[in-house]
Amino acid sequence: MTKSESEKLGIQGLGWIVRRSQQPVPGLTPFYQAAVGLRQLRPAAPSGNVMLWSGDLVMFELSALTVGPDSLARMDDMSFMFRARNFEVAKAALLTVGAIIEREDATPSRRVSVRAPDGMILGLREAQPGASFPPDARADAIWRSGAITLPNTPALPEALQDIASINLRVADPVGMAAFYHDALGLELLGAPSAAGAKLSLGRTVVLELEVGGAQRPILKDRNESPDVWIARVYDHDGLAERLRRKNVTIVNQISITGGKLTYASDPEGHMFGLQQRTLDLLPAGAKDRIEDVLARKLWAELSD
């Protein structure tokens, strides 16, 4: 498969969603496992963080929020939706464990948004077999060929496939679409409008910009944001330099086990991240992380 413009910059796609909550992580983990069917990959980290597999190459990380409750007022600005292959079964699983419905839509496909016990908004979007919309078409092809699974990891429930979208509420969808297209090379999926915009976040995930948000203060540290999406990249330094050249606000740059991680802010104050794990730098015990092994394999199969 030929690389897209963002892939040519070294962005494979969505790699992680980090959820920071004031509720204890051990108490939240069973909800996300039971309600959605996410699979815990490894024992909790020494920090208490828990890593859950959420389909395809995307990890969902539960972490403790270390700042005051005023940050929680911003959490509705970001949500995400799973692609449901059996919408009714997946919806019933959410409601059985106490998720509260916030919104339901029937067109162009069925959707439901719910509020988790920690206040996070997540939802389901019914899969569209035979769809022409590129991310949905790719998801459909992956599903028909055998949905992506991780070795030695239970598959997600039959009703679910993967994360379909990251949804951001913004004040200016047209301006924000231009920002993400210019800064990260994300492909526009149709013409942006005052009502919203869609961009490809790689593979089968869409970045949906929905009108209804407001300008937020630019945060000074990653721990101030309750939610952040992070792209899996293969040219961290080049992308970080690209952001600097375009005067994008860099919030944090940190070293991680075997790699680098940059947190940045869009013009309206929403945080996003770029993370690279380099095989040569990983310690022996981390070289075989199953999600990284699969990601590197699929990346190697792309052509320029």
Q: Over all CA atoms, what is the radius of gyration?
A: 18 Å
Overall morphology = globular
What is the string of SSEs from the N terminus onward?
Answer: HEHEEEEHEEEHEHEEEHEEEH
**How many domains would you count in the coordinates?**
1
Give the N-to-C terminal Cα separation: 8 Å
| Helix count from the secondary structure assignment | 7
Name the quaternary structure: single chain
Main β sheet profile: 8 strands, mixed
Number of strands: 15
**CATH-assigned homologous superfamily:** 2,3-Dihydroxybiphenyl 1,2-Dioxygenase, domain 1
Classify the secondary structure makeup into a structural class. alpha+beta
Mean pLDDT: 89
* CATH fold name: 2,3-Dihydroxybiphenyl 1,2-Dioxygenase, domain 1
CATH architecture: Roll
How much of the polypeptide forms β-strand, as a percent range? 25-35%
Name its key features.
304 residues; 2,3-Dihydroxybiphenyl 1,2-Dioxygenase, domain 1; 32% strand; alpha+beta; 15 strands; 7-stranded mixed beta sheet
Topology readout:
Elements: H1 5-8, E1 11-21, H2 25-36, E2 39-40, E3 50-53, E4 59-64, E5 78-84, H3 87-96, E6 100-105, E7 111-115, E8 121-126, H4 134-146, E9 160-170, H5 173-184, E10 196-200, E11 206-211, E12 227-233, H6 236-245, E13 249-256, E14 259-265, E15 271-277, H7 290-300
Parallel strand pairs: 1-4, 5-8, 9-11, 12-15
Antiparallel strand pairs: 1-12, 2-3, 3-4, 5-9, 6-7, 7-8, 10-11, 13-14, 14-15
